[in-house]
What does this fold into?
Amino acid sequence: MAFEPVIGLEVHAQLKTKTKIFCGCSTQFGKLPNANTCPVCTGMPGVLPVLNQQAVTFAIKAGLATDCTIAQESRFDRKNYFYPDLPKGYQITQYAAPIAEHGHLDIETEERGQKTIGITRIHMEEDAGKLIHDPIQAKSMVDLNRTGIPLIEIVSEPDIRTAKEAGAYLRKLHAILKYIEVCDGNMEEGSFRCDANISLRPVGQAQFGTRAELKNLNSFKNVEKAINYEIQRQTFCLEEGKPVIQETRLWDPSKNKTTSMRGKEEAHDYRYFPDPDLVPLIVDEQWIQSVKQTMPELPAQKQARFIEQFGLSAYDATLLTASIDLANYFEETIKGLTDIKLAANWTMTTLLGLLNTQGIDITRSPVTATAFSTLLQLLEKGSINANAAKTVFEMMVKSGKEPGVIVKEMGLEQVSNPSELEEIVNKIIQDNPDEADAYRQGKTKLFSFFMGQVMKKTRGKADPKIVTPLIKAKLV
Ligand code: ADP
Ligand code: MG
Ligand code: ZN
It folds into this structure.
């Protein structure tokens, strides 16, 4: 029997507010344990939460950017459970009445082209703290700096069918949250985390099967790997006639497998009820309008503009707008350039190639957009040719020097003086009479031989745009 995977994702994104969601403590990452705490976020008795307005504004912005309907009235509930990183004994979260619902997000899939993934809801909640286990001293410690940091949880419809689609959805969502500047998207620091729900059903069956929930997925690659593993595991279960158990499973990236963590709890286990310390959250039309006014160009709009304004292909435009940092880098690069396609090619192959092999993000590129632009200007003006430009780029990465300085130091200026080049071409034809004759008799493949000789003579610095017509003219 063939099975079809059904996948729904829950993403927790930390909002980039300066202070926590219900108190004035700093949200700064990397502080000494418990430095960012107060009686409110450490759950002392008798304290009262005060909602952070900026957090609400960010949540509205995320809702609008994913085409959600913003609720005029939403509410905060208490989700009750015990864990040492949750001193209050409950998490304040929007459960019954979330701030945003019924959105969607479009992804590109290899198999089926564009596909729309529904967004069930976006709700606001507070983060929990962190336990640090010290196996040497055989003790555990708690750091409450993260307690009370504002989160939005973005819950997708179970519309996803493959690991690749899940990856595409997450990358797109990540890109959007960074574009609208509500989340820094740092996955290593846990600012953007994902749980994946997976079930299988026989192909053709409408009803969903029993799902497992995967936790601890801290990179796009791990999400895809974990989902593929889980599809395989559940397929084996069902083929052997064993039921899939509804449970929470942990992904172990070092072993490339998931293991059972605990049985999945049901909503009623949490005894949700409205938090009596917080009034309902009212968002009026004016608030929504003011957020709309701060909405920047979103990926799809930027992509359309890159096609329209710069004449780029849809493929190039999609790639160059995949992250706001890359798009900004590219727009900075093309200042002062006329050949945008050239800049696009160099950005996508040479620059991204380098970042890929070094495994670094565009924001940490060893070559700044300004320096990259200067290099491409030298190429565009014909001061250096493409080969030399590659050499200069490599030197820029190694030495951090200005492209102009490298060109001078390495003597890479292109030879584009026509009379100088004509003399060289003449000499080469003279020195190679057999090849010249063969060319004249129709062996035009020998063109590259002559070009090669010119490049050899000029140590790769001849301007091919001038040499090409010269060779052709001399060999008729
Ligand atoms: P929780 O996991 O907290 O109980 P929900 O019930 O809201 O939360 O579901 C979480 C996610 O699980 C959603 O993204 C939803 O699309 C997905 N989901 C629900 N049922 C299934 C299923 N049978 N198979 C796969 N995903 C599912
Ligand atoms: Mg869940
Ligand atoms: Zn606090």
Observations:
- The first strand starts at residue 3 and ends at 14.
- The chain has a mean pLDDT of 93.
- The chain has 15 helices and 16 strands.
- The pocket of adenosine-5'-diphosphate (ligand 1) is lined by residues 6-10, 155-158, 197-199, 208, 211, 213 (CB under 6 Å).
